[in-house]
Amino acid sequence: MTKIGKRGLLGLAGAALAAPAFAQGAFPTRTITMVVPFAAGGPTDTVARLIAQAMSTNLGQTVVVENVGGAGGTLGAQRTAQARPDGYNVLMHHIGMATIPTLYRRLAYDPINGFETIGLVTEVPMTLVGRNALPAQNMQELVALVKREGEKLNYANAGIGAASHLCGLLLMQAMGTRMTTVPYRGTGPAMNDLLAGTVDLMCDQTTNTTEQIKAGGIRAFAVTTSDRLESLPDLPTAAQGGLPGFEVSVWHGLYAPKGTPAPIITRLNQALVAALQDPNVGTRFAALGTAPVPVARATPAAHREFWQADIAKWRPLIQAAGQYAD
Ligand code: MLT
Fold it and tell me: Would you indicate the residue range of the signal peptide (predicted)?
């Protein structure tokens, strides 16, 4: 039998206190918090609430969404990175997790090693939309307007690092001009100003724009995918509108704090996969121009591999643009 000295016993006790207790099969026994790093009513919030509701059913415990907006999605990410790694704190984030490590050089948390991956959720196309009274009826007229008016036009986004910021960066590079950007705590609030006509343009996810486009509340110019969408068949692609290569879609993923025990990650991933296979989630996602990722892409390992590759993809693009958040 191995003799454990006093230091050994103290060490074992310390380790037991540090790691959250996890009795196999006991998790979860109470409400789980899902942080959304943008304001309520936006596309990330929409994806999160659909997934949270379906996960609650599978877990038998409530998954409550908490909106922690600000600083391009970094404040919400920080909240989760610094939370107890006990399975009761998760984060629904998106492509910003791939760009924030380069865009933000002085964060209060580790934007890469501060998280465990639970699984990918969905990839959402983006749409270039404007206020209804904007003096441009189509993409060709919009390109001419932006090139003529430049910084007189206001472009809404959800802060540096947000998908709407990245889409705007690519759009202005493609058009060879700059507009004045107006940051919001999420594109949910930004949509209100677009509908009111107090901001001119925005590039946002179909989960936030589809219903407003169909209701005639805003004007749609293009979708940022290589093919048109079944949910918006009359909307041309950016390439068809004269901006070839202007393609970007926003992936979403679920995370937990670093150090969350593997059996808990496995249980959370099981609930996520059940949510992705939930018919109601599939139907709602389809109506909003997107779809759950295939289950093979929703494993923790596949998510981490995809995320790491996207960090490496965006880093040189951001460094070439030379625009950082701090
Ligand atoms: C983004 O621009 O990253 C998102 O649309 C923000 C949000 O979900 O509100």
Answer: 1-23
